[in-house]
Amino acid sequence: MSNPVVDQAARSKALAPDQSFIIQAPAGSGKTGLLIQRYLRLLSLVDAPEEIIAITFTRKAAAEMQGRILDALNMAANIDSSGDEPESDHDKTTFVLARAALQRDQEQGWQIIENPSRLRLQTIDSFCAYLTRQMPLLARLGTQPETLDDAEHLYQQAAINTLAELESGAGWSEAIANLVFHLDNDLPRIKNLIIDMLRKRDQWLSYVVQEHDRNDMEQALVRLIEDQLSITAALFPNEHKSELLALIDFAAKHLSESDPDNPITACLSITSMPDSRATSLNYWRAINELLLTKAGAWRKQLTVKNGFPPASGNKLEADERTSKKKQIQALITELQKVDGLQQSLATISTLPPAHYTDAEWLIVNALCELLKLAAVQLRLIFAERNQMDFIGIAESAVNALGTDELPTELALQLDYHIKHLLVDEYQDISVNQYRLLQRLTREWSMDDGRSLFLVGDPMQSIYRFREAEVGLFIKTFHDQSLGNIPLNALRLSVNFRSQQGLVDWVNESFNDIFPAQDDLMTGAVSYSSADAFDKSASSNNVRIYPLYGKAYKKESQHTVEIIQEIKQQDPQDNIAILVRSRSHLAEIVPALRNANIGFKAIDIEGLGSQTAIQDLLALTRAFLFQADRVAWLACLRAPWCGLSLESLYALCDQHRDKTIWECVCDEELVNKLAQEQQIRLQNFKAIYETVLLQKQRLSIRDAVEAFWIQLGGPATLSGKTDLENCLSYLSLLETLDQGGSIEDLQELIDDVSQLYAAPDLKADNQIQIMTIHKAKGLEFDHVILPGLGRSPRSNQGDLLVWLLRQRDNEQEDLVLAPIREAGNFQAPIYDYINNTDKAKQRYEDARLLYVATTRTRKTLHLIGNASLKESKDEVSCDAQSRSLLGHLWSTVQAVYERHMPGIIEQGETAPTLVINQETKRLTKDWQHPELPASITWQHTTEDEAEPVLIEFEWAGETIKHIGSVVHKAIQCIAEEGTDQWTQQRIEAEQQGFDNALRQLGVPQSERSNAVKRVINALSNMINDERGQWILSKEHKQRQNEYPISGIVNEKLTNAILDRTFVDEKGTRWIIDYKTSRHEGANLNTFLNHEQERYQEQLEKYGTLMKQLGEENIKLGLYFPLLQGWREWEYL
Known about the structure:
By secondary structure, this protein is of the alpha/beta class.
C-alpha cells in the first residue's frame, strides 16, 4: 500500500475549474504535475485550446509542460487501446483527466497530438512579445523590435549619452551638474551607477516621473517613524515603565556632565514614557542606547559610559550606584522575556529623521530629472537599433492593453478569448509583469466562467537580480486576490523528492533560518514545513565537512573524495556540485580533472579569462584600431610574435606620441633591437600588411581568423579544446560584424565575458556542475555544496533608493533618497532604505540556501570554511558575515566547534602577484606545416566544387545547424554506445543542445523548436532497431565522421562519411544520415525519391572506399526523424 498524500485534499480542490487559486508549492511538491492536471481538466471543458494560456518563466519549463501534456494525452490514447491503467494515484488522476481531454479533442476535432502548437504554453517574455506584435503602435514600438537577452552595451551607451548632456545647456544640464558635484566629479562612477539603474528601471520609473512634494514625503517619513514607535510602545511592559524612567533619569544625570552628547541625556528629568509621535524619537533612541549594544544585543554589563559609574564616594552614594546597577541588570533580564521587544528596539536606532535637508532634496529632484533623461536616451537607442530588452517589451505589452479606464481593442479581444490563465513560478513575477496580469484580468468577475491559477513557492524566490519581487506573491497570497479576482489560497506540503531524514533536517534548520512572519516591505518569507512522502531515513542523509581559514584546496579534496565514495557505493546515482558563484570552482574543477573525474558543466568555465581568447581579442582590437596602444603591445607580446619586455620598452616607451604601428614601421627604432627580435617583428609586420589590404573587404571574422592563422595562432594552443574555444570567439565576431568592422567595441568585450566553454557531449550526466540558480527546478540523487563559507562581493549602492509602504486606507507612502554625498558618511534616510534593501538580500540569500539543500533525493554534503579567532589563549570560530554558512551557523556550529583545532595554524594564503616576464612563444623561424603531397589529376572545365561534410536538403541556416548538432550527437552515441544513451539522458541534454545551437548562431526564437527536432531525431534512432544496428559497437573497423579523399571522374574529391563499418558477414557499409522530414502521406515514395537524389553522392563515397582496397561494399541512407532506411549494393 502506498504512503498517503497528506495534502491530497488541497490538490483535489485545486482542480476545480470554476474557482481561482493561488498555491504555495514548496520544493519537491510536484507543482508541475498539478499544473498539468489543472490544464487537462480545463482542456476537457473549453471550446478551443487557445482559450487556456499557461505562462512560465523559462523556455525549458514551457517545453517541459508541453511535453508532459502531450505524454499524458498519448498515454490516455494508448491505455484506452491496451486496457492497462496506471498504478499510482497521481498517474490515475492524470489518466482520467487526459482521457476526458482527449474525448473533448475528438468531439471538437482539434487533433492536439498532431497539432501541439495549439497549446498556448509560453514564457512571460514571449507572451509580452506576442502582445506587442498584435498592436505595435499602441505598444509604442512601431515595427516589432528584436528582443535582447543582454542589453548591457545599450545601457552603457544610454548612460554616456545622458552625461553628454552636461554641457548641452538644456533644462536638465543643471540637474546633471548638481549630481556631478554631489559625487565629486567622479564621472566613471556616475556612468556605472546610471547603468545599474537602467537595468531595473521598471522598479523606479513610475516614481521618478511623478511630481514630488517635499511636504508629502516628509509626512511619509513621519508615518514611518510613528508606525515603528507604536509597535515598540505596545510591546513595552507597563509594569516596568516607572522603573525604566527612574533608571534612565539616573543615567542621564551622570552623563549630562561627563558625556553631554550621549543620546541618553535626552531623557534627563523625564517623567513619563515617551509616546509614539515622531517628536519622541530621540527619547526612544535614548532607551535603545541604554538597553542595547550597537550590535542590537541586550547589554550584559553597564559602565560609566552608559551612565552607571562604579560605587565610590560616601556610603550612601556608593550604595545607590550599586543598587541602580543591579536594578538595570535585573530589568534587562526581565525585558529579554518579551518576544519581539529586542528587535523592535534595535529598529529604532536605524529610523531616519522626519525631514530632508535642503541639499538632500536638491539631489532628489536632480536624480529624478537625470533618470528620466537616461530612460529616454535608452528608448531612443532602442528605436534606432530596433532592439529592446525584456523590461521594455513587458512595459510595451502593458501599454498595448491600455488603461483601466480606456482598455484597447486588443485588451477587449483578449478579454473575450482568454478563459483561463495559469501562471507558473509566480514568486518570480516582476512589477511590470504583475501590472500586465492585472490589466489582462481587470474585467473578470467571480462567476463568469473564467479562472486564474497562480502557483509558486516564495521560499524559492531567488531572482531579485532579474527584478523578481517576492512581495507581490506575499501580497496576493495574504489578500487572496489579484485585482478584482478572489483567489483560494492553498498550501501544499508533501515532498515527493527527498527522503525523510533530509526533509526533517531541512524543516528543523530552516524553521530557525527563515523569519517568523511574512513581511511585504522587506520580502521576508516565513518557513512552511514539508512532509516527506519517502519515509526512508539515514544518519548520513546530511554530512557536514568543517574547514577553517582559507582551506580552498581542502575543499576541493573533500569534493573529489565525496564523489569517489558515492561512485563506489552507488555507481548509477547522479551527483550535482552546486555553487553560489562560478569563482568558487577555481580549485574544484582542476581537482576533478586531476582525479580523472568526468563532469558536465553548463555556462561554468568562462573563456574570457583564457590566454588564447585574450590574445585573439587583442588581435581583433589591433586590427581594427591602429591607435589602440594596449592591444598592440599585447599582440607583440603574444606567442605568435613573442617580443621581450625589454624590446617593447625600447621600441615604444620613449615614443608615446606615436602609435605602436608607427614605431614598428620606424626602421631606426627596429634596428636597435636584437637580431632575433627584429626577425620576429618583421614577420608580424609583413603578415599584418598583407591582411590589412583585405580590411572591410572580408568579414571581420574572416579577416581576424586569416590574420591569426598566418601568424601561427593555432600552433600556440595546448590542444583541441583550446581550438574549439577560439572558434567560439570567432563565431562571436561573426554575429557582431557590421560591414567588416565592429560598431561597438564595448559590446564585443562584454560578450566575450559571457563566453563559456561548451559542455562536453561525451560526458554523461552522472556528475554535473552548475550554479544554485541554474539548479532551480532540478533534482539529483546527491548534492555537494562547497564554498558555503565564502561571502559575495558588496554592491556599490544605487543612485536613488526608494521605499513604498502600504497604508491602512490602501494608499501608499513613497520615500526617495539620493546616494550618499562623496566624503559624507551621514545619509540617514538613504541608509535606512538601503538597510531595508540589504535585509531583502539577506532573506533571499537564505532562500538560495533552501533551494540548494532541497535539490537532493538521498544525501546532502555541506562544505564550508569558518574563520578562527584567538583571544586569551582560547580559539573560537565563526562564519563570515553574508556567507551561506552564516545562515546555517546555528545548525552546524556545534560540529565546527567539536572539530576546531586547538591552535590557529597558518592557512592557505593567496598567491603573491608575480609578473612573469617569460612567455610561451613560437620559434623565430617557425613555418606553417607543409601541405600534404599533391595528387595528380587532370583539369576539366566542369564545375569542380564538391560538397564537403554534410549536404543539407532544406533551405535555411537553422536547418543546417540542426543537422550539425544531430550529426555530432550521433557521433557521441556511436562512440560511447547506445547503452549509455537512454531516452532520459537525451532529454537531459536539452540545455547542451540549446547551447550548441546558440553558439552556431541559431536565433533564440527558433532554438526551442530546433532543440525539439534534435531530441526527436536522436530518440527515434536509439529506439529504432535499425538505428541500434547502425550504432552497434559490435561492428569491426567502425568509424564516425571519417574523412576520405581520392580521385573520382578525374576530379579531386573530399568527403566525410557519417558512419562506416564492416559487419559480421564482412560487408563494408557506408551510411549517410539525412535529417529530412516528411509530413505528407506515402512515406515509401518519399524515401525512394531521397534515394535517387543522394545515390550519386553515396556512389562517390563507395568509389573512394574501393580505392582503399575494399571490395564488398553496401551503401545506406538513414533518416532519424522518420526512422526511414534505404540500402543498395555498390557495383
